[in-house]
Amino acid sequence: MRLTTLLAIPALLVLCPLSAQETPRSPPPRGSLIEDRAARKLVEAGDARLEAEETAKAVEVWESVIERYPRSRVRFLAHMRLGNYFLERDRSFEKARVHYESVASEENRDEDQRAEATLKMGMCFYEARNFGKCFQVMRDVIEKFPVSEHVNQAYYYIGLGHFQLGHYSRAIAALEKVGTALSSEDSQIRKVEAGKRLFVKIEDADLAALESGRHVKIRCEAASGDIELVECFPVGRNVRIVLGSVATRLGRPVPGNGTLEIRGDDSVSVTYVDEHTADKQFNREVKHEVSVVGDAVTSIMDGAFSETLQGVVLGKAINIQTADADRDVTDKADQISAFVEVHRAKTDEELEAEAIALAQAEDAESEDLPEIERYRVVDRVEIRLVEAQIQQQLENFNKSKDESAPEEDTPEIVVGDDAVHTGVFRATVQLIRSEETISDDDTLQALPGDFVRLVYEDSLNTTDAPKVTQVDARCIEGNLGGVRVTRSRISDRELRVRTRLKTADALTNIGNRYKEFGLKDNADVKYDQALVLCEEIMSEAQQLGGRLLEETYVQLWRIYFEMDRLELAAAMAQRLQRDFPNSGFVDDALLQLAEVARRQGDLNRAIGVFSRLVRMESSQLRGEAQFGIAECYTAMADGTEGARATQLHDRAFQEYKKVFDQFPDSGRVGEAVAQMANYYYRQKDYSRAVDTFETVLSSYPDARFLDVILFNYGRCLYRMGRKTEARVRFDQLIADYPESSLASDAKKISEALSQAGG
After folding, report:
1. Would residue 106 count as lying in a domain?
2. Is residue 144 located within the same domain as residue 222?
3. Quick one: 506 and 444 in the same domain?
4. 405-419, 597-611, 626-640, 649-663 — which is least confidently predicted?
């Protein structure tokens, strides 16, 4: 029996030299500081455009970095910026993936960049619902970058992908590894971040007998005094794992209110009573300890401390804020310290002098020369930040409750409680315009064009080591006044159509989530709402034409497909191919058109459409299409008998083999190999089938139908007279896939083998 605490880890969202043959003139050597400096300036210019919401210009600037400096290391940074933009803002997953592939190439010497880019390639496949390919890429992150912080995210997305496919046991197996892949196995699961939800997992063989609707209670006790009982529920039928969670927040203990009140220097003890242990003990307590920590967030704020700023005004005060929950250790207003610095750009002469000195000290041809800092510190002040008592008006609190805000994210108002438990620390420091800097004073001296940097050392956090958090703001003259919106109306037709399309896409995704949980009526409501929006804008989209009309076609076809209105989905896919033959969505449309034909039983037509897609050399879905062809021949074979069925099974085997031979990067390779093993089993070639089953289990841990594979594997071993090994495989199926429809049959066979002495 195991008791484990888990932390939900959110998805990480992060985030150029002339061609050698471009002119007869010999170009500067690769990685020259001059080229890198110019490329980096362009990247920063693109960042500034993005901050100003000039997204088209930002993309144009980043693309120019890649075009103008194709040999600079900074080009990978530009690729990363473009990938993040297309993934997070434009939701163009194919475009984003192309840029991430460039960053993940072996030409890039930055291991962390490559790991992050590989992870985000997998995220692109996940968002596009290509889970097979997502699994493969995420496994690459784990295998190629085992010490990277991105390994946790890879396990996280593998778990989410299996959950989407209904593979709950494999989802749990992946998710329970989240937080265990850092430098220490217990670095995450022994810490809870104050204010976040604490998740608890209990694994106990006795829980497999838990009746439907029943739950298990565990006790969470904070060292500061709060005690909460948490209900844990099974994750499926006949499963020996239960999960539960409790919200945490900073504050004085209030036992029994459903929220665990904690302090910054607290620890939490989680206790489960094991009623019957394997060594025949009764009611034994099993405990697990976690420490309370907080990941610091630093900000430079406006005067009301309501919005973050990217600039500060000379001659006015700078408002500093740091949120660090683990520094709230008393009922009084606690204090922390930080540094505020003024950085000024170095002159060209200073930069050149440093570059020359660096080149003389190091090998000039080395690609690992340290980068020259473009700014120098001209003033520095240590400040004391005091924990703030943040008041919230009752009407705003009620309003947020009415809008279904998560309970743990909403500060609770306790009448008559004068304790300060916010974990938010604030201070102000004066900034004046002056060319001369005065040390040992409490005022910062700066000039226009300088920037202010807030630096705070977070000594206790969810990682194993202290880390420094910082934030920058540009020094300007004038005033940072707010802009008041007196009238808001979308008058532009193109903007209106685009807004409706995004709303329809969001409604469709909500409907998909409802459908995955079996809430068909709720899903249909969302699909109907999305369909109405698309039909309302169709006439305007046809008048505007171009990209908007293409996206409208795509959205309609997806809605029809999710609603199982297959004829309409097929018609819309055909219209997309006819009107936009060069569209990047054509291969998706062909794949879905073939799936429609296959669902309707028109297998010959489906094979024809799949074959068209296989011949599209530039498509990333060719492996999917080849697998679809093989599935069609399998369906044909299952629908007939005799020699014809044998011929069709042989043809299906050859088509599955093409997936393995011609499309090794496809996400369907594991399933194709499994089908090849089933073919060998039907041919009674058991030794070959066993070898193939072993390949699937060892090389494709995320393949679908692993329960079927284990079942057939056990049958093969039984046929070969290896009964003890067969029983091991049946028991593995029962343990790993208790929710499988084959689990009951596997249990009967295992028991029979046990009685027979196998």
Report:
1. yes
2. no
3. no
4. 405-419
Q: CA Rg, the chain, in Å?
A: 30
Whether 619 and 658 share a structural domain: yes
Please name which of 628, 633, 657 lies closest in space to residue 644, comparing C-alpha atoms: 633
Q: Is residue 72 part of a domain?
A: yes
- DSSP 8-class letter at 308: B
Looking up residue 735, the CATH number of its domain turns out to be 1.25.40.10
List of E strands, 303-422: 311-313, 317-323, 335-345, 375-387
What DSSP element (H or E) covers 285? strand 282-293
Q: Residue 493 and residue 660: Cα distance in Å, rounded?
A: 48
Is the same domain home to 149 and 288? Answer: no
Tens of pLDDT, residue by residue over 283-336, are 677 778 888 888 888 888 887 787 788 888 888 888 999 988 888 888 888 899
State how far Cα 380 lies from the chain centre: 38
Directed axis angle between helix 546-562 and helix 493-516, to 10°?
Answer: 20
Are 633 and 509 in a shared domain?
no
Contacts 24+ apart (CB under 8 A), 51-56: 51/310, 55/85, 55/89
What's the domain range around 324?
Answer: 297-361+375-392+416-476
The length of the chain, given as a count of residues: 758
**Which one, of 450, 460, 457, 454, lies nearest residue 426 by Cα?**
454
CATH number at residue 596: 1.25.40
CA distance 707 to 546: 47
Tell me the C-alpha distance between 157 and 236, whole Å: 20
636 and 719 fall within a common domain: no
C-alpha to C-alpha distance for 99 and 744, rounded to whole angstroms = 48
Residue 82's nearest CA partner among 57, 104, 103, 99 is: 99
Number of domains forming the structure of the chain: 6
pLDDT digits (tens, 9 = 90+) for 437-472: 777 788 888 888 888 899 999 888 877 788 888 888
**pLDDT tens column, 480-508:** 554 444 444 444 677 778 888 888 888 88
**Residues 421, 272 share a domain:** no
Could you tell me how far CA 492 lies from the centroid of its own chain?
A: 34
Q: Look at 154-158, 187-191, 328-332 and tell me which has the smallest mean pLDDT.
A: 187-191
Give 32's pLDDT tier (boundaries 50, 70, 90): low
Contact 252, 244 (CB under 8 A): no
Single residue among 513, 548, 572 that ends a domain in this structure: 572
The predicted model scores a pTM of 0.44
Chain mean pLDDT for the chain: 77
Q: Is residue 401 part of a domain?
A: no
Q: Both tokens of residue 457?
A: 């050392």
CA-to-CA separations, 289 to 248, 266, 449, in angstroms, rounded: 15, 11, 50
Domain end among 543, 572, 601: 572
Whether 88 is covered by a domain: the verdict is yes
Mark residue 258 as left, alpha or beta (left: phi above 0; alpha: psi -120 to 50; beta: remaining).
left
**Widest Cα–Cα separation across the chain:** 95
310 and 278 inside one domain: no
CB 526 within 8 Å of CB 511: yes
List 292's β-bridge partners, or say none.
Answer: 192
Q: How far is CA 447 from CA 16, 365, 404, 476, in A?
A: 30, 37, 47, 8
The helix/strand count (H/E) of the chain reads as 23, 18
Element (H, E) at 254: none
pLDDT in tens, 197-240: 777 777 666 666 566 557 788 888 888 888 888 887 765 555 56
Identify whether the C-beta of residue 723 lies closer than 8 Å to the C-beta of residue 752: no
Please state, in angstroms and as integers, the Cα–Cα distance from residue 535 to each residue in 134, 490, 504, 555, 569, following that order: 33, 19, 10, 11, 14
Residue 187's pLDDT is 37
Structure tokens at 400: 């947020």
Q: Locate tokens 């699961």: which residue?
A: 189
